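User: I'm preparing a small set of examples for a lab meeting where we compare how different chains pack in three dimensions. I only have the primary sequence for this one, and I'd like the structure in token form so I can line it up with the others. Please keep the answer compact; I'll paste it straight into my notes.
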Amino acid sequence: MPTTHDLDRLTHRAVLRADEGRELIVATGADRVRFLNGIVTGNVAGTPVGGGCHAALLTTKGHVVSEMWIFVRPDDIWIVVDAGQAEPVAAALARYAIMDDFAAAPRRDFTLFSVLGPESAACLTAAGVDVGPLADGAKLGHVDMGAGELWLARVRQLGVDGFWLGGAPSAVAGAWARL
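Assistant: Understood. Below is the structure token output for the 179-residue chain.
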């Protein structure tokens, strides 16, 4: 249970959360937007490149298979799921993609952490991570940084705004060390 001090830091300053226990699925193919829009609860078709949506994959009976955060990119779609879900979710998506130009595969060389709280943008900027337009941007807005080595997304977790910083484990470890 969080202490009063932890809650104060979260609501008034910034808190770092190590490996979020999340995994990444990369969806590709010409039908990726249309296919995902028809199979998950989020509005993928209405999400612009650089934006994201919160969604769920459901069974035909309406039972939740997985919660997911979908990020639309120029050439693919990134789907962030809870730890242990990348393989089964990618397999479930593939089962439904019968006549579609769609593929989904877990990306194993990806990790992320959170910086949450009202001072999260300043904390990241001080560590050399320019949050740029995402500082006051829309939730689930995202950008590639540092020649694609790092990825930054605007999120809301634990009732506060902040960021996910993700990428290859070595790049993420370097950013974590600067914080």
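A couple of notes for your slides: The beta strands are 15-17, 22-28, 52-58, 64-72, 77-82, 103-107, 111-116, 142-145, 150-157, 160-167. The chain has a mean pLDDT of 88.

User: Perfect, thanks.
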